[in-house]
Design goal:
CATH class: Alpha Beta
CATH architecture: Alpha-Beta Barrel
Helix content: 25-40%
Number of helices: 11
Bound molecules: 1,3-dihydroxyacetonephosphate
Shape: globular
CATH topology: TIM Barrel
Strand content: 15-25%
Distance between the termini: 13 Å
Largest sheet: 8 strands, parallel, barrel
Radius of gyration: 17 Å
């Protein structure tokens, strides 16, 4: 049995309303699992959730690499903390591929968020053509490598492996495909960071996780939880939170 605490994140992306978040609070209120649960609603709802009694932590979906200033449309780690978020998602594939964020900027954001006291859900993953050309490890190792020299303490980082081809497509990586790359990522941590980071860093799987496929994925040795998009907006999120039970 792994000593890593099972972790389930709900990434609501640009979805939801106060009413829907109320439903989530009620749904998770009944949850008594040991799983660490973190929910990332759109920024504008963080304060609303912060003022409610919840049994899950809050995350931003992004933040900038500066504490304040003339950066229209951006928010800082300090602002996230001010409205109750302890976490931030960085490097998500939609930030990389829809908004064009590059490794360098993402690495600066990760380093700054950690420095400001946030924990980071750091996302990596390959596109379908990269997988088909056997580049999965090369791409994922490259994305991890981009933050390596800027990060000293890995204890506040959770890595989320989210193959781009599985996000929002209904096409999940098989448990075997996910385990294979998770194991390789853990070896990368061993070879490039430390034995301790390899043992302790949680590696999540993300990409079309549902109430129906979560148990089989959760049973794999190197899958320490999930980052969930679409299904985190639905009642089945409770089943995913409980997938390790
Ligand atoms: P889906 O679960 O909707 O595929 O999204 C995964 C994701 O991008 C979570 O960050």
């Amino acid at each position: 049995m792994s000593s890593r605490k099972f972790f389930v994140g709900g990434n609501w992306k640009m979805n939801g309303s106060k009413g829907e978040l109320d439903n989530l609070v009620n749904l998770l209120a009944k949850n008594s699992s040991e799983t660490e649960v973190v929910v990332a609603p759109p920024f504008v709802f963080l304060d609303y959730l912060h003022n409610k009694k919840t049994n899950f932590a809050l995350s931003g979906q992004n933040c900038y690499k500066e504490s304040k200033g003339a950066f229209t449309g951006e928010i800082s780690p300090k602002m996230l903390k001010d409205v109750g978020a302890d976490w931030v998602i960085l490097g998500h594939s939609e930030r990389r591929h829809v908004f064009g964020e590059k490794d360098d900027l993402i690495a600066d954001k990760v380093a700054f968020a950690l420095k400001e006291g946030l924990s980071v859900i750091f996302c990596i993953g390959e596109k379908i053509e990269e997988r088909e050309n056997n580049l999965t490890e090369k791409i994922c190792f490259g994305q991890l490598g981009a933050i390596k020299d800027k990060i000293k303490d890995w204890s506040k980082i959770v890595v989320a492996y989210e193959p781009v081809w599985a996000i929002g497509t209904g096409k999940t990586a098989t448990p075997e495909q996910a385990q294979e790359i998770h194991q390789a990522l853990r070896k990368w941590l061993h070879d490039n960071i430390s034995q301790d980071a390899s043992n302790k860093t949680r590696i999540l799987y993300g990409g079309s996780v549902t109430g129906a496929n979560c148990k089989e994925l959760a049973a794999k040795a190197d899958i320490d939880g999930f980052l969930v998009g679409g299904a985190s907006l639905k009642p089945e999120f409770a089943n995913i939170v409980n997938s390790k039970n």
